[in-house]
């Protein structure tokens, strides 16, 4: 390859080493990610669509995460398998641009969704009464649309600076300085800052939920069951953010070292780069297992979905723990609580209520007189 391209393509040396890497290494990693990730995230999408009580504000963001995870896996693994195995990108310039753009866009949308979800949880936990007027499914849909628009706009540069060249899909930047600036901005604005925001948000949530509260509330905001449900939801999202930070850190570190020419061109580095990329993609497989491990609603819905799949006679009734911060479900819980109180007070007797009207003996005499007259 011409020496003039060495500055624009800092990863050229790695390409020549792909022939020396056993294809089974890449195929096994990518296949496991694809086989596990796509069905798991499809199951998350299914249970949210299937069960009306799962359509909460938080689960709509989870639904969006599942969609981005599936798209990310689809556009990252199949082409990567053939690319690494054949050491040649054979799909043309259009698919090269599209694959890179969608890969980067889905990553950006995932980051923005996790950050928005963290801010939403802070608003719901710190201001539980005030947030119910604003945290609606409609406003959440608008927010997700804005996330996708911002994610696409932030990565549109990939379309202009990506092309097929010498049988490879390259990022053709005008200079190495611009390429370095792009990856630095990607690392700062789509990793460092989101991780800081998420850390601050979940620290605030933890201080709010895990401290002992003695104040009472007419809205029963500090009811033990509500607090426990908030803890489960916040813990679930916090673990998702933690998995994201761990899985994507090696990829970003290696990308920065490579673009600033601090990464040696060796076979070990090539293995490490492939592994870091697959570790980043595998983050899309982890989220459904986090939902199943922490969330009681998702765990019950997953079990019900599997029973329905293998047993047509299974009863599809699932008991859901309502989100105390969701406006719709809080109304259901409130009406259920009021009706339960009414029934319990009726069944417990009328000792606490003043007697109105005539005694029972007089009523019987009146009824007997009426029947005689009739």
What is the 3D shape? Answer: globular
Q: What structural class do you assign from the helix and strand content? A: mainly alpha
How many strands in all? 2
**Parts with pLDDT < 50 across at least 5 consecutive residues:** 1-18, 212-221, 330-361, 366-374
Mean pLDDT reading: 77
Order of helices and strands: HHHHHHHEEHHHHHH
Helical fraction equals: over 70%
**Total number of helices:** 13
Give your account of this protein's structure:
By secondary structure, this protein is mainly α. The protein folds into two domains: 3-310, Up-down Bundle (Rhopdopsin 7-helix transmembrane proteins), CATH 1.20.1070.10; 327-373, no CATH class. 73% of the residues lie in helices and 2% in strands. It has helices spanning 12-16, 23-50, 57-86, 92-126, 128-131, 137-154, 157-160, 176-209, 224-259, 267-294, 296-310, 327-347, 360-373; strands at 162-165, 168-171. A two-stranded antiparallel ribbon has the order 1-2.
């Amino acid at each position: 390859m011409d020496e003039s391209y060495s500055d624009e393509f800092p990863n050229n040396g790695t390409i020549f080493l792909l022939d020396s890497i056993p294809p089974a290494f890449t195929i096994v990693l990518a296949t496991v990610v694809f086989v596990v990730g796509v069905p798991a995230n499809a199951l998350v999408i299914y249970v949210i669509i299937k069960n009306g009580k799962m359509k909460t504000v938080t689960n709509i963001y989870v639904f969006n995460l599942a969609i981005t995870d599936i798209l990310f896996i689809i556009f990252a693994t199949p082409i990567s398998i053939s690319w690494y195995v054949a050491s040649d990108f054979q799909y043309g310039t259009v698919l090269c641009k599209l694959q890179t753009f969608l890969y980067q866009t889905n990553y950006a949308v995932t980051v923005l969704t996790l950050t928005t979800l963290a801010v939403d949880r802070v608003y719901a936990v710190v201001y539980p009464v005030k947030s119910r007027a604003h945290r609606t499914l409609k406003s959440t849909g608008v927010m997700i649309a804005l996330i996708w628009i911002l994610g696409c706009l932030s990565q549109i540069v990939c379309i202009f600076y990506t092309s097929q060249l010498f049988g490879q899909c390259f990022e053709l930047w005008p200079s190495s300085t611009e390429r370095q600036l792009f990856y630095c901005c990607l690392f700062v604005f789509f990793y460092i800052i989101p991780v800081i925001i998420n850390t601050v948000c979940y620290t605030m949530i933890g201080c709010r939920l895990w401290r002992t509260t003695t104040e009472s509330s007419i809205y029963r905001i500090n009811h033990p069951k509500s607090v426990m449900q908030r803890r489960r939801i916040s813990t679930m999202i916090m673990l998702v953010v933690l998995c994201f930070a761990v899985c994507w850190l090696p990829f970003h570190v290696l990308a920065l070292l490579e673009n600033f020419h601090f990464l040696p061109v060796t076979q070990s580095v090539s293995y490490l780069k492939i592994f870091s990329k697959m570790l980043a993609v595998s983050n899309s497989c982890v989220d459904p297992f986090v939902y199943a491990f922490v969330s009681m609603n998702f765990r019950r819905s997953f079990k019900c979905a599997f029973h329905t799949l293998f047993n047509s006679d299974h009863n599809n009734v699932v008991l859901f723990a309502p989100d105390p911060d969701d406006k719709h479900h809080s109304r259901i819980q409130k009406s259920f609580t009021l009706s339960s109180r009414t029934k319990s007070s009726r069944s417990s007797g009328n000792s606490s209520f003043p007697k109105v009207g005539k005694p029972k003996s007089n009523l019987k005499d009146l009824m007997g007189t009426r029947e005689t007259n009739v």
